[in-house]
Fold each of these.
Amino acid sequence: MTGRPIARALVQAGQHAMLTDSDGRFEFRDSTDNALFVNKPGYFWENAGAMTGWPLAVPDKPRPLELRLVPEAILSGHVTDPSGAPLEGVSVMLRTLTVSNGLKHWEQRGGTTTNAEGEFRIAELQAGEYAIQTALKLDGPPEGDAAAGYAPADYPVLGTNGAGALQVHAGDQLEAEISTRLEKLYPVSVTVKGLSENTFPSFNVRTAGGVEINPALQMDRQTGIFRMLLPSGSFEVRAIGYELPQLVRAGGRGNINRMPQQFMAQQSVTVAEGPVSGLRMTLEPMAAVPVEVALEKTTKPQSTDANPLQFNFSLLSAGADGAMTYPAEGMDPTHPAQGLQTGDPLVIRNLPPGQYVLQGGGQQPWYIASAVCGGTDLTREPFAIAGSAAGCAMRVVLRNDAASLQIQVSNAGSDAGDGRPTTAYVHVVPLNNLTRDEQMLPTGTGKLSLDGVAPGQYLLLATPAGTQLAFRDAESLRRYETEGKRIDLSPGEKTEIRLDVIGGEP
């Protein structure tokens, strides 16, 4: 950001390590390692999270390397009441807008608590989009008619799809002033049915806008009555019960830990300036989806065909409020899900209501050729679960006539003038098929060979930084298409493509 030297950074090359001097310099003699690792609190590597070290080019004439670290950003501020008085002990939660499975999601990224002056400070932030929220804080005892609390407050107030989020750049030092109001809290009583001795419930309460809050909660397991304090408004209350895991004896393999069964109930609640009672929720098992798999061999059998096929399946939530993954497992808990053989019964368990997309991957050259569940084509549309039953079994067909790509990236692999090769990241973005995820692969030589690519339409893009793309967002996809190349791969096809590294981020 500034070009200034960084002193006392720890540099490692294999078994060698040293701290940089006041000019940021270091030197290793007689080192045969081909990668360097650098660390200093308050700084990140370039392309943090995408690189495992700096690969070294071999220059014609020895010259000093130049390694660049990116400074952290810091977000600090105050939380006050409407009169401007500081509030101590308020939980401040940090969220970041990230991309997973081609969609933007808000993810929790830690937080802190205000001190006696109402101050908070969150450091070690990388560049990105952020938002903060204060938690519901009780003011006084949680009993009686005088219960009150400071309502959750958002900073900034967000629009659709994260519009208006804090734009944080490397090295930024931002301040946020948050004011929250004191509200009367009302007792809400819910009777939960379906609790067994081995079931331990937890509650999740969200506002009508989808923001999670954490109210004070009391539980009476004998009666199944749960009591919480909420301000006026509309809420979605979700109870989730977890059964203790059971050990299953597997012949010759010892004990296997069975995945615990999960139960769920949800209820819409409106609090209108008064107590709410008489609500009832019944825990029911979460949905389970059987998975039937068939192999369609379209090419000559290979030597690996005699071994169990390594292929895994999972459902990924397609909602904008999270990115959970639910893997397939064997219906028989003594049989692992990995090493799939034709006809092995699989199941995806513990699925809450929502929208999902099927993902699968494994041993080349096999790929998902088709997938349906009832009348839903899973390659074209998400799979919806409304209650405790999925209502259908997935039927997946795998084929082994995958295509291959040879990719040449312009201006990648050359010496950037600092002793390191110019690295580019190739994005292989699937189009018109929800079962496939983006592939992002670095190339330091400018050449990339990809085998086992499923036939279909793709967008190819080369970027200077390794960042996942929100390719399932229609607006983002239109922007990417102006920078990349579209291809349509046929079964078994071998294609060569040349790409130019785009300037900046798409």
Amino acid sequence: MKVVPLRLIPGDDLRRALETWMGEQEVQAGCVISAVGSLSLAQLRLAGATQATAIHGELEILSLSGTLTLDGSHLHIAFADSSGAVIGGHLCADSLVRTTAELVIGLLPEWRFCRELDPATGYPELQISPQAPG
């Protein structure tokens, strides 16, 4: 595994920035190892929901985890608002960095991740295969 640090700045879209960055890599599989920072706007799809919920405020990122592929990502986030209330779910696009997002990403050159529609779930789910040596 290759470990890469990444810092996002105010106004960056957390999800889109990660997906864009992953698309620039030669490796086809990645994961979020750690993340701290803050958001001013979080677009969150809660469990069982079909649409994102927008949450505005001074939001502290407590955790971010998930897989990164060239054709999409699956990211879950938990954050706290200014009162300390914690909420989490699927991270959606248009979630904006407030002050910083400091990330550590793991790149997995020996694996290939892709997403294919799974008829059982109705979602594009992770497919995992070994990457042929280059």
Amino acid sequence: MKLKISFLFLITCLSSFSQEETFTESNVNINIHVDGTLLVPVEVRKPNLVIIIPGSGPTNRDGNQNFIKNNSLKKLAEGLTNNGIATFRYDKRVVKQIRDGNVDENTMFDDFVTDAKTVLEYFKSKKEFKRIYMLGHSQGSLVGMLAAKEQADGFISIAGLGKTVDLVITEQISNTAPMFIEDTKKVFKSLKEGITTEDYPPALASLFKMELQPFIMNWMQYDPKAIIKDLKIPVLIINGTKDIQVPVNYASLLKEGNPSSELVIIEKMNHVLVPIEGDNLENTKAYNEPHRELSKELVPAIISFIK
């Protein structure tokens, strides 16, 4: 009987040990627009902090949207914090607006930059972290560049665009629906002149509906290659070879803009940061498969850059 009790006690102790947390987790309210999750490693006295900025659309702190759940940014944050680096990831302001049932159609790209700057200033004022890095994924790459300038200790781009968004969309239309290329160019010509237009085919309505045009007009004024050139801080550029949204050559364009930056191309990694062995069907399915693990090279590349 004593042997059984001792054995059960040993199992309990081992179970408790295995569940010991390597980091603390807390929700932080930055302001009325920004809420996020802060992870801090428990065994590091004054860790570095990575602020993770989500990509396009109503993307939340975990990298998810309605009907799309992959937990890409949550897995990235936990992977970094399990290796001694604090992380803060936050919902885009539009996520909170949707949750509250009060969507502001006047939200501009510049508002996302303001939010990222506010997050950075908030944590700089706390003076609890050794160095603070901005990490932007997809659209968040350009947001992070603009926010990091002269403020952050380093910048990390993952799947960031290497051209202005009008050129990116024009390129995508040329590759997927070339019959609409002239219509696309005509719309962007108007937007460059600061004029919204209803002169576009119905097939392009999801791109160019009137309520979106002011946002695109605001976004397209920023050239990522030119902006990254102005960064005087350490820069890491990461892209995956299986990214069907952001091709590898965009990372090369960013590298050209900032020759002193570090460029890491991860074989088989897709846009939601997981390895893809098969075709585009597997790739698109992975956007909604949260059980998939991150590409093994991703977290080590960021750790190496920071440490």
Amino acid sequence: MSVFLSETDIARFLGQSLPDTRKAIKNSKLKSLTRQGLKVYTRDDVLNWLAENFTSLTSERLMKADHSSADGGGLDPFSCGITNLLSESEICFPEKASTRSSILRYISSKAVEIGSVYDDSELREQLEQREMVVSTALKCGAALIHPLDIRQLYVEKELLLLIIPPHPLPFGESRGRLTSLFFLLLFPDPHRHVHILARLNRFLRSNEFIEELLCAKTHEEALNIVYHRELKVISLHGKS
């Protein structure tokens, strides 16, 4: 797993030209380094920047990022990848969760229970550090949670978790909005991480999808909602 990413790597994530990518980087707060005469950026700085940047992309550009990063990660951009990742025991309904700390504890313990990681305290620390940089909570009421530096964790298998707590809770959204849906992303491969991140952002542009998911009471019901949303997204060609 590379620690550094080039401008070309970032362009592939976004599915856009190198000049356009350089312009986007110039307008960002990303700090470059020089390695072997090449301008590079740290992997986690790039992934954190993309997580913040995706919410402001047009539907067409977000679709390009979805497809391009899927290709880079060896995935089929027209398959129901999110549905497949959530098809086993990865949709959870905790009985209690009222604070950011309590939901992160629950998520970390669930990741250990499933067998994705072995140390819930290490995962929780990485999640907390990520939230301290900039909250992963979006204004739509969902949070796309991921570690600050996944290289600090031993990930046995990649994991996508969907957590639907009984009540919305404060999680750090910039305007104080409460958060109702929590997705955990544990993907060591940056292409796969960006693909999942982009596709979830496409899902969350539908208020109807969010409302239906919040009303779900069982794993099967929630998975069916995700499945139908994903079918719509992969057939819309950028109009999600």
